[in-house]
């Protein structure tokens, strides 16, 4: 029995020594291997114009202002300022600043409206992005939203403006963004007072960055909700069966 036990111990010790040697060889090979190449930095296009003379607005980012298709259209600052920017700039904003952080914007301030048209944005870590359009680049089109219904209920924080300073909906205290379009916003102005309760439902997005919808039903509560034409609805065409129903505007058969 002792002979077998001693043989087994020697065998086990041999296996352990061989494993240690193999691990040491693998570690040495790994240590001697060249490090993996770092990804090449993305080339930044230099702005053509000097943004420095533009007025500077600073503040704490409360939330991103999303479109119903989930694109970043701008920022809401803690003092209530709404910062708007073109799509190319908006797509880059989440990469340089997060809610709760300080941000600095070079842009034109609204006259009589708490809005800023951003041309350059600097985040808290010093990274700066500017409104630079690449020559020949195709400007993306935000097509009408199609998707599941998203309900929004809560208290209105502020009217939602567009880049021209026109009211197009509301921003809620729970950070949801409700679009109704300029015409509906004017018609429903009595309901769009800060502090008022609001119920709305429509297609849009609800995710990590926030909630934004094109309202189809809206009112002070679910029992008083009315139907409205969504802000991104296509313009009405000819009545089906009429002489102009099959006519494509701008086509050879159009008058």
Short description:
The protein is an alpha+beta fold. It is 16% helix and 33% strand.
Write up this protein.
- This protein has 255 residues and is of the alpha+beta class.
- It has helices at 2-32, 87-90, 182-187; strands spanning 56-66, 72-77, 82-84, 102-109, 115-122, 128-130, 149-161, 167-172, 177-179, 197-207, 210-219, 226-227.
- Strand 7 (149-161) and strand 8 (167-172) form a beta hairpin.
- The strands form two sheets. It has a five-stranded mixed beta barrel. A five-stranded mixed β-barrel has the order 7-8-9-11-10.
- 16% of the residues lie in helices and 33% in strands.
- Mean pLDDT is 80; it is low at 1-9 and 11-43.
Task: Set out the fold topology.
Elements: H1 2-32, E1 56-66, E2 72-77, E3 82-84, H2 87-90, E4 102-109, E5 115-122, E6 128-130, E7 149-161, E8 167-172, E9 177-179, H3 182-187, E10 197-207, E11 210-219, E12 226-227
Parallel strand pairs: 3-5, 9-11
Antiparallel strand pairs: 1-2, 1-4, 2-3, 4-5, 5-6, 7-8, 7-10, 8-9, 10-11, 11-12
């Amino acid at each position: 029995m002792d002979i077998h036990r001693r043989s087994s111990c020697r065998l086990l010790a041999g296996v352990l020594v061989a494993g240690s040697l193999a691990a040491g060889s693998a570690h040495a090979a790994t240590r001697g291997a060249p490090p993996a190449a770092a990804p090449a930095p993305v080339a930044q296009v230099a702005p053509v114009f000097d943004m420095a003379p533009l007025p500077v607005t600073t503040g704490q980012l409360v939330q991103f202002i999303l479109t119903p298709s989930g694109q970043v259209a701008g920022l809401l600052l803690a003092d209530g300022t709404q910062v708007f920017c073109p799509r190319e700039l908006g797509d880059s904003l989440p990469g340089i600043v997060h809610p709760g952080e300080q941000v600095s914007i070079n842009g034109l301030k609204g006259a009589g409206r708490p809005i800023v048209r951003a041309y350059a944005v600097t985040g808290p870590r010093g990274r700066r992005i500017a409104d630079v359009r690449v020559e020949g680049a195709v400007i993306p089109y935000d097509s009408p939203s199609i998707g599941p219904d998203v309900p929004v209920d809560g208290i209105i924080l502020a009217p939602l403006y567009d880049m021209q300073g026109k009211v197009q909906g509301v921003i809620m205290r729970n950070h949801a963004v409700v679009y109704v379009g300029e015409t509906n916003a004017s018609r429903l102005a009595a309901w769009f007072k800060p502090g008022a309760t609001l119920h709305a439902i429509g297609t849009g997005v609800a995710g990590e960055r926030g909630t934004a919808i094109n309202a189809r039903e809206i009112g002070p509560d679910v029992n008083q909700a009315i139907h409205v034409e969504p802000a991104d609805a296509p313009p009405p065409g000819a009545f089906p069966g009429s002489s102009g129903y099959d006519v494509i505007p701008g086509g050879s058969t159009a008058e």
